[in-house]
Structures are given as structure tokens and as C-alpha cells.
Design goal:
With 372 residues, the chain is of the alpha/beta class. It folds into 2 domains: 12-262, TIM Barrel (Alpha-Beta Barrel); 328-369, no CATH class. 35% of the residues lie in helices and 23% in strands. It has helices at residues 41-55, 85-93, 114-123, 137-143, 149-161, 180-191, 210-213, 221-237, 256-262, 289-297, 311-323, 338-341, 358-362, 364-369; strands spanning 12-19, 69-77, 97-107, 127-133, 167-173, 197-202, 241-244, 247-249, 266-270, 275-278, 281-285, 303-308, 329-330, 347-350, 353-356. It has a 9-stranded mixed β-sheet, with helices on both faces. A 3-stranded antiparallel β-sheet has the order 10-11-12, with no helix packed on it. Strand 10 (275-278) and strand 11 (281-285) form a beta hairpin. Helix 1 (41-55) packs parallel to helix 2 (85-93), helix 2 runs parallel beside helix 3 and helix 6 (180-191) packs parallel to helix 8. It is globular and about 60 Å long. The protein starts with 11 loop residues before the first strand and ends with a helix.
């Protein structure tokens, strides 16, 4: 990855599609999701399809992007797998994309069936991401998750049988009552499924969530550090390479869509509360599905706001994002003199790049603020 810098006209763009429906809401979740709006699903699917078709009129990318191609599509949520498979495939069909585009759908293991995976595979989906969080029942309960562990194994089997061999297992550490042994049990159970990609995130406390209101369940920094070190060691031994602080993959299975984010690429946003980025401009859509549906029906833009990033802000953000990856940052971005001593053991020099060590990944924010 080259030194991050503002890019005028990337060759490829991504598409993010937000599905804001869930059957239940996890205690730690602050995303724009609703558990009582299933009656809107049909109208919402129609609105997203219309929005995409208008944006890519005549199969062309928006004028501000020039001559670009969609290289990745990501269905996030919410729970995209709550939609009927035919509805999700209908949305995907509206996106003019490269033949080799990566198409990812986030799935709750409880909603996965062999038929759903087959519909996805037949409709152009080639990657799924399962929200596992834990393989220990009492930890799932503490997180407010409803799926059962066996459904994770069944979902992986269904994906593989449908030909969806590229998949991600999303796990989380630091939940209340989760011991180090519990976490290691989750990691080992996940590795037993031989996943090509795993994302492991520390539990964070988001304002306004049930978790935020319950201080007894807040994660402990030292506990999370121990669990990060444990997962790093086990993944490395299993042949999963880290390529971003919270992401590991077998060679060739890195998430192209997320790499687009971390490389400050351009991506378009569809659906309620979806965020996009085009040539230094961030924008976001209206938050609720009702408002999104109404905006599309009335022929209006669903955009709720935007932020123009200055060149300096883009450069700083680019380096902060790249620091989180194996690409690292240019050596000349590091402080010199006595200020450099604070980074001893946190970065290693690889040619002309400075890359975080395992210890540095635990203190990535601290390293980032010290960059020149």
C-alpha cells in the first residue's frame, strides 16, 4: 500500500447498503437498527432499488466519480439476512459491478438456512460475514445475543455447501463474565471451523445503549489486552495473518471492501443511515427507514448531511487508518529525538515503513497522536 494521500479519481469504488432491521437489539449496539419495522421491508427494498437505479443511471457511475467501476458491495445492518433471499438478490442486481466484484452480506447465524445461502450464491453473493461474537452460551447471554452456538456451525456448513467458501466469523471479547478461558474457548471453537477470515473486536461502550447504563458490565482494559494477545498468538499459529488491528485472514481472503475504507477509497451509500465518501466528501443519509422511503418516493435525495474534508484532514486520517494495517506509515511520519523514545517497542521499521508491533496495536491510538 503506498503512502496514503488524497486521490483524485480511483479506479474502483465500493457500495455500502444498509439494512436497518433486526429481530432483537443487542445490548451494546448503537447502530441505526429497528426491531419493530418489519412491515416496512417491502417498501424499503423497493426504495433501495430505485435509489441505486437513479444513482447509476444508464449503468454509469455518478459524474463526480468519473469513469469508475464497482469493485465491492457490502450489505450491513441491522441484519441483512432477515430479508428474503430474493429481495436481497434483487437489490444486488440493481448494482452495476465488475464481474469479479466482492459481494458481502452480514448474517445472523439464527437466520441462515441452506436455501438462503444457495439463493445468495446463485444471485451473485460471494462472501458472507457471520455475527458470532462468542461460542460460550453464558457470554452470548451477557451480550444480549440470541443465537445458539450450534447455529454457527450449521451456518458455516450451509455457506460452504452453497459454494460460499469465502466467509468471515465476527467475534468479540470483553463481555461481562467472560473469563480468559471462555475467550480462548471461543477462539479455539472458531479456528476448528477453519475460517478464511476472522474479525475480533474488543467490546466498546456506546452512549445510549443498555450496556452504557450498566457500569458493572463495562469491559476492563487490562482484560481486553490479555485477550487480544491470546487471539493474536492463536491466529498466527493457525495460519491467519493480521492485516488490520482487528482482522486476520488466510492469504487472498482479506476483505476488499474494508481495505477500500482503510485506504480512503470512494464508496457510495444506499439505505437509511448509510454513510458514503466521494473524493474527500463524507455524506450520510436520513436515519429512519420511513424517512428514507419517503425521500425516494418523492424523488428527493435521501442525503441528510455532508462534510467536506480539507487536504490536511485527509492526510492525517489517511495515516491514522494506514497505521492500523500491515502497510504502516512512512518512517518520516514518526517523531524524532526524545519524542521517538515513547514509541520504543511499539513500532518496527520495515524498509521505509513503520509498522505496529503487537504491543503497538494495543496502543494504536497513542501511537497515532504522536505521528508528525
Amino acid at each position: 500500500m503506498p503512502d496514503p494521500a488524497p486521490r483524485e479519481q480511483p479506479e474502483a469504488i465500493g457500495v455500502y447498503i444498509h439494512i436497518p432491521f433486526c429481530s432483537t437489539r443487542c445490548d451494546y449496539c448503537a447502530f441505526a437498527t429497528w426491531t419493530d419495522r418489519d412491515h416496512l421491508i417491502g417498501d424499503y427494498v423497493d426504495a433501495v432499488v430505485t435509489d441505486i437505479e437513479r444513482t447509476f443511471a444508464n449503468g454509469r457511475t455518478p459524474q463526480s466519480l468519473g469513469d469508475c467501476e464497482v469493485s465491492s458491495v457490502f450489505f450491513g445492518g441491522g441484519t441483512p439476512s432477515l430479508l428474503a433471499g430474493a429481495d436481497l438478490v434483487r437489490i444486488l442486481a440493481a448494482v452495476p459491478r465488475r464481474a469479479d466484484a466482492e459481494v458481502t452480506v452480514e448474517c445472523n447465524p439464527d437466520t441462515v438456512t441452506p436455501e438462503l445461502m444457495q439463493t445468495y450464491a446463485g444471485g451473485g453473493v460471494n462472501r458472507v460475514s457471520f455475527g458470532v461474537q462468542s461460542m460460550v452460551p453464558h457470554v452470548l447471554t451477557s451480550l444480549g445475543r440470541t443465537h445458539v452456538v450450534e447455529n454457527v456451525r450449521a451456518a458455516v456448513t450451509a455457506a460452504r455447501q452453497a459454494g460460499l467458501g469465502s466467509f468471515n466469523l465476527d467475534i468479540m471479547y470483553g463481555g461481562a463474565g467472560e473469563s480468559l478461558a471462555d475467550w480462548i474457548a471461543t477462539v479455539d471453537a472458531v479456528l476448528a471451523l477453519d475460517p478464511p477470515h476472522v474479525s475480533a473486536y474488543g467490546l466498546t461502550v456506546e452512549p445510549g445503549t443498555p450496556l452504557a447504563a450498566d457500569h458493572a458490565r463495562h469491559p476492563d482494559d487490562d482484560d481486553q489486552a490479555d485477550k487480544y494477545l491470546a487471539v493474536t498468538e492463536r491466529f498466527a499459529a493457525a495460519g491467519l495473518d493480521w492485516y488490520e488491528i482487528s482482522n486476520w485472514a488466510q492469504p487472498g481472503h482479506e476483505c476488499r471492501h474494508n481495505l477500500l475504507y482503510w485506504g480512503q477509497g470512494n464508496y457510495l451509500a444506499f439505505g437509511a443511515a448509510a454513510h458514503g465518501h466521494v473524493n474527500g466528501t463524507r455524506y450520510w443519509n436520513v436515519r429512519t427507514p420511513e424517512r428514507y422511503i419517503e425521500a425516494i418516493r418523492s424523488g428527493q435525495s435521501p442525503e441528510a448531511g455532508r462534510e467536506e474534508l480539507t487536504e490536511d484532514v485527509r492526510r492525517d486520517e489517511a495515516r491514522q487508518l494506514s497505521l492500523r494495517t500491515t502497510a504502516g506509515v512512512p518512517v518520516d511520519a514518526l517523531p524524532t529525538g526524545s519524542a521517538a523514545e515513547a514509541l520504543d517497542g511499539l513500532v518496527r521499521i520495515d524498509g521505509e515503513r513503520a509498522v505496529l508491533t503487537v504491543a503497538g496495536r494495543l496502543l494504536a491510538n497513542e501511537v497515532a497522536v504522536r505521528l508528525r
